[in-house]
Every structure is written in structure tokens, then in C-alpha cells.
Amino acid sequence: MTYLSDHLSGADLELLDPLLEQHADHWTGLFHGLVLRTALQPIFSISHKRIIGYEALIRAFDPDNASVPPFQLFDLPESEQENVLLDRLCRLLHIRNYRSFRDDVNWLFINVSPRVVASGYRYDSFFGELLRRTGLPPHRIVVEIVEQPTDDSDRLRETVEYYKELGCLTAIDDFGAGHSNFERIWNLSPDIVKLDRTLTLRAGKDPKARQILNGIVTLLHQSSCLVLLEGVETHDQAMIAIDAGVDFVQGYYFSHPRVELEQIRTSKPDFETLLSDYKNRNRIRLDPTQQLAEFFTSHFRRAVRQIQDGSNLRDACTEIMSHHTVSRCYLIDQRGVQLDDTQASDSAAGQLDPRYRPLENTSSADWYRQHYLKQALAQPDRMQVTTPYLSISGVYMCVTLSLGFRFRGELRVLCCDILAGQGPLSGG
């Protein structure tokens, strides 16, 4: 072991051969008296409803065949060279096993030791030689970089670029935990981002966290990254993953890691039932929005006619404002600028948080960026309804109704904010 550690440089694949043993249907490795085996955990595409890759995980066993936790295995190296040795041994073992695994299409996700990454790509010319000798095409490999603080971002970027130049895909692992930040996404431009399971757990307990998760997925997609959610262990968490719009899922709910590689594909998740359940839940959730538009359309049309006949905004919106769910009404011109003062309901005025008083006065505010305004201007005489969002004028969750109409040759848009979760069919 000392000899091997002292002579690790460049490719040197031959130095690892004595640490490997070939069996009838798999390979094992040997490190500090422990037997190492490859376990594969399937990764699924929600849209494709099938496996698109496997994460390779190392499993260690003592001489009595008792399982040794991974953290104990990775605590064994006593030097930087031994860290490199263990990292190389694991990857060689995984690729040898995957080459004998009957799958010629899907990806193999391989973790790279953070210590090896921090040491720079000079250690990993080995990997290119490994792929060449084993005949595994580089485009079948996804190299996972664990989220961690680093003192040398340039070296990390060079290392990631090395894998890309080989033709591999790259992934940031455990995003959302520890030192995660978008600076690393922009700096490294990974192909895939794996979201940490803590995001799933929080999203299952807190609606705000669920909204944040959905927003993170959107930002990652806008950064040209595919998104994988890890740690999906329950049906409800699978629903969260689907709703968040992630591309791939991984976790015990779908499949456990297995060292018996040929048994992995025998159990297949029932995506048809899962997606059917999601569609049913989603339909129930969206129906009240449609009912909201239908309920208020007649009120809006009467208000518009009164405005066209010369009534002021308050008088025209009396009927709308009388409903207990309505927070405020306001009128916008075709440039997106608010006309006159906002008409706030008496009930909403009493609930305003005084800490946000600087945001209350919206006279002459410009709302042109708002999607509900653009839609109303593009489709006059058709009621528009938003999904719940955070109102900047009151800092509360609301749904906005908007209706475009003609007034003296110009477009106007009448808007009304409904307190989220308090639609006309929710009581009161």
C-alpha cells in the first residue's frame, strides 16, 4: 500500500490492478483490509418515465463480511497520496463493473473526491486513460463535484474543464446544503445540478420552502442546467419533485442502491400512477382559480361600464370591494402606469403591516413588468388570473384579476387583488 501511494502519478493504471479481483459477474477491490464493492442506484427521468442513469456508490465490507460505513472508509487514508489512491480505486472499480453491466445507453454518475478536486487536474490524467483503456465512452460519464468551500476556485474550474474536455458531463452534487451558492453554478457551468435532500424535507413542511425550491429549479433551468432532486423517499416528496419541475429524481421511493447489479432493473416504479395522481391533485388545485375568474367576471364588466360612463374608480368598484376576499382595486393605463390612488378595502386596510408602510402608496407606480398586465393588454375583454405571488405593495400573498378594456380610444386595465387562499368559494 505504501509503495502504491508513493508512486501514484499520471495514469499508472497497472499499479491498481493488484487491488482488484474479478469474479463471475462483478469486480471487487481491496483497501486497508476491506473489500470494496460497487452499488448502483438508478436515476429516473420523470418525463421519460424510465431510468436514464445510475449513481455509483462504494460499499465496504470487513473480513467478516460486515458492512463498514462509507465515512469510516474515507477516514482511513493517512496522506494525500492515499486519498488519491482510494479515489482512483473506487472509480476504476465502478467503471469495470459498469462495463460488465448490460446497459449501452444510460449515464454513470461518479463522485470525485473533494480532496482530489482541490489538488487539481494534474492527478486526474489517470481518468482519461482509464476511459480509453476500458472503452467506456466519456459521454456516458457524469462526474459529480461535491459542494464545498475551496480556497482555489481557479483550480477547481480547471479541473472541471478537464472533465468537459474529455467529453464527460459534469454535475454539482448536494446543491442547497452547506456552502451552496449560485456563484459556483455560474463559475463552473455544470450540465446537471443535484439538489440536496434537505430541500425536499423543508419543502414538505413549509409552503414557503416549497416556493423557494420551485424558484431554484427555475433559476437553474435558466442557467442551462438540468436538475436532479435527491433523497426522494415518499409519495408526497415525489409529488413535490414533479411540481417543482425537476428533470430527474433519485431516492429510496424509486429504488434503493444495490450491489447485486443485475437485480436493479427488476423493480420499476409505477410512473403512470404517480403522474396520474399528480394530475388529479393539480387539477383540484387549479380549479378554484378558474372559478375565481368566473365569479368576478360579471362584477368586473359592470365596473368597466361604469368607468366608461364617467364614474370614478371607487364608485365603479363598490360591488367588487364589498367582497370579503378583495384587498384592493386599481386602474392602469396602456403604458403600465397606475392611474389615481389604489382603492383598498376596509378589511384589508386594517390588516396592513405597518412595517411596510413605505410601499403602500402606489399612485403613478409602473406595473408594466407584471405578467397579468401584459396579458390583459394583449387580450382585451378577457379576464386574466395569476397564480399566487407576493404583492410588493402590501407584502402579502395574493392573486390578481385583470381585465383590459377600451376607454376614449386607449387601453385601460382594471385590476383587483384577492388575498391568496381566500377565494370566493373558500367561505365567508
UniProtKB/TrEMBL annotation:
This protein's name: EAL domain-containing protein
Pfam families attached to this UniProt entry: EAL
Organism the protein comes from: Marinobacter zhanjiangensis
InterPro entries, A to Z: Cyclic-di-GMP_PDE-like, EAL_dom, EAL_sf, Sensor-like_sf
PANTHER family: CYCLIC DI-GMP PHOSPHODIESTERASE PDEF (PTHR33121), SIGNALING PROTEIN (PTHR33121:SF76)
Every EAL domain range: 19-271
Superkingdom of the source species: Bacteria
Cross-referenced Gene3D superfamilies: EAL domain, PAS domain
